[in-house]
Amino acid sequence: MSQTFLLQAIIYLLAAVIAVPVAKRLGLGSVLGYLIAGTLIGPSALGLVGAVEDVQHFAEFGVVIMLFVVGLELRPSLLWRLRGPILGMGSAQLLGTAVAVAGIALFAAQKWPVAVTIGLTLAMSSTAIVLQSLAERGILNTRAGQACFAVLLFQDIAIIPILALLPWLGRALGGLPVADASGSALAELPPWGQTVVTLVAVAAVVVVSHTVLRQVFRFVAASRLREMFTAVALLVVAGVAWLMHLVGLSAALGTFIAGVVLADSEYRHQLEADVEPFKGLLLGLFFMAVGAGLDLRLVASQPGIILALVAGLMLTKFALLLGVGLVFRLGWAASLLFACALAQGGEFCFVLLSMAGQLNLFTDPVAQALKAAIAISMALTPLLLLFNDRFLQPRFAARKGPERPPDTIESHEHPVILAGFGRFGHIVGRLLRANGFGVTVLDNDPDQVETLAKYGIKSYYGDASRLDLLAAAGAARARLFICAVDNQEQSLQIIGLVQQEFPNLQILARATSRAHAYELLKRGVHQFQRDTLGSAIDLGVDALCTLGFHAHRAVRAGQIFKQHEDLSLREMSVHYGTDEAGYISMARQHVQNLERVLQGDRRPPEEADSDAWDSAGPKR
Q: Residue 433: inside a domain, yes or no?
């Protein structure tokens, strides 16, 4: 590893560590912090880093991972319900923006192939910036957030025909021949052959993700090596991205498809938790690379032209997006958010501009001016969203049309998270499900997860002692966390993590022993059940019946025993582990009290010690 590489890495990390927390503290969001940090260390500012092309290509893998994670969060059924916004709003935005921008370019005396290329390029928005910014605000699942996602997804799909169209535009302008400009390995095939291979590639991703990968994940999970599961997750993302690139498709679109197929897998939450750190780091690096790539010297030398391009781009897209939102009945507040979020250029603009340059559709000065305008528009997006939050929404939030539907999309997050689905946990889970409560089940045994799936019980493989997995399972929004794992040390570790990171989440627990129950009480967990106590009491009740007790008296004896046991457990916990003599003395006293209460309950009412239960039983 070269010294130069290490120095560059230190500069990027140091800039992020300084700029991002400051930006977050000022309410600007992490995305703008990354962009500012990249701009400051870039070649045209302080010059602390050199050419950023290689870094940007590497960081674009973060966008690919992000689309994979987004796919994991979208079940195919939900994606099918979004088909209307994807096709309707997506096509309206893309075609409307392309026509409007192309018209402006024609008015500026550009030839029609160049105008069409500019229109299609600037119609793209930034998937990375928009989804990250909306996720930080917690509004990705609102109707406006889902509309933004639908349009971005349509744009990713539209990249395929746009890339195929650019060579023909270049040929119409007199540029390079079609065959010489294509970056796909299928360039030599006829159009029908390219279509067949493309469909086969997409079908292969779907089939392999649905069948083979599940068995692969099960095999790797059985090894109990966390790093191997992470490696397989990254291998899936990289492999799908490579296959899509090979056939000339969008790598992000391919990994998104794989994520959607795996959304119903029991390994969904573990996959999301494993790739999330890489997504965050690489996305941050991507934003910094965008900022570092901004040519401030060009902006300073042509400020009027660049600012006019930025203003024209963002105002045109804002006006058109606002109209699309209102036509599709989002309402004023949601339409304003929709328009502010998507009014910038995107990362795919750079790809299209690069290919257009190879086809001689643009001169280099024009391409550089467009790149600068796109980068500035991306940097302005967090500020535009902040302006929307503080000024536009308070004024327009109350303007609701009578036809506006509810503001949120149906959520698949469940109110209960259950860790451990073994002999104890599965009874709790089945009872809750049977009464209509959705339960997100986490279990660290891949064989158990696979067995449950055969009986139609949905559970997810994963280690609940990991913060990222709990977050992926929706702990921040759930109402109840039930810890039913059978390992005492792991149980206490999980409960401590939940108490620290999700203090508003109510905890119920399984106690595997009396000692475990004492530890739960020390941690403030007062709602728990000892997994053997109830069944042991039931067996004791059966024994009393066999020995001649009437059934009702035997059941009552079991109830008294359970109440007394619970009381003694909580009172004796004060002495457990600290005062052995006091603990033993109290234990003996509770044994005597219990015998006295039960013997008194067995005698006729007139002979019973009326004070026995009052003196020794639970105080209500």
A: yes
